[in-house]
Amino acid sequence: SIAIDESPLFASLRGKRICITGAAGSIGSELARQVFKYQPKEVVILDQAESGLYELERELTEKSFATPTYFYLADIRDEQRIQTILKEHRPEILLHGAAYKHVPLVESNPSEAIKTNILGTKILADLALKFSVERFVMISTDKAVNLTNVMGCSKRIAEIYVQALNTHLELIGNHT
Q: Three-state SS for 48?
């Protein structure tokens, strides 16, 4: 049994507007289930997978959380759509879990991994800056450490972009 001190996490989520991308996926859906125990002000749940999003919406709606929750069928590669959602909800925390992650499928469809994992992340990170998101958390993978496939490479490039934005902000004195 591992005891985790959740107090810093609790403090960072409580009363905040939270957006979760890739919320119908394995990691995103678990994040969506967990954030409610920290009493956020609002939760925006976003995914391009209609069936998965529908099932998550049904599951979370049945639990009758008091937190206002919004479900959006949207692709992170669609900059206008994402901008509209972020402009309306002004999330303070963005948990970015949207990605193509299945190595064999990504190897056969590398352009889709590049468009989603790299371009989609760039769009989200840039819009997070535009709308003054306080904390942008990108979910990555161990495959971004020892690069042997397209999926790992695409996630590593996305990590480098997000890290570069963060470094730039630190250099100019804006800690977002």
A: coil
d(CA 97, CA 117): 10
Q: Does the structure show a pLDDT above 60 at 72?
A: yes
Helix (H) or strand (E) holding 95: strand 93-96
pLDDT value at 142 more than 90: no
- Which residue among 101, 122, 143, 155 is the active-site one? 143
> Does the global pTM surpass 0.90?
no
**Active-site annotation holds for 143:** yes
With b meaning 16 or more CB within 10 Å and e meaning fewer, what string describes 134-157? eebebbbbebbeeeebbbbbbbbb
Ramachandran sector of residue 64 (left: φ over 0; alpha: ψ -120 to 50; beta: rest): left
Q: According to the model, what pLDDT value does residue 139 have?
A: 86
- The rounded distance, in Å, linking the Cα atoms of 82 and 120 is 10
* Beta strands 69-73; 93-96: pairing state: unpaired
Mean pLDDT over all residues of the chain?
88
In this structure, what DSSP letter does residue 6 have? -
Nearest to residue 24, comparing CAs of 51, 42, 44? 51
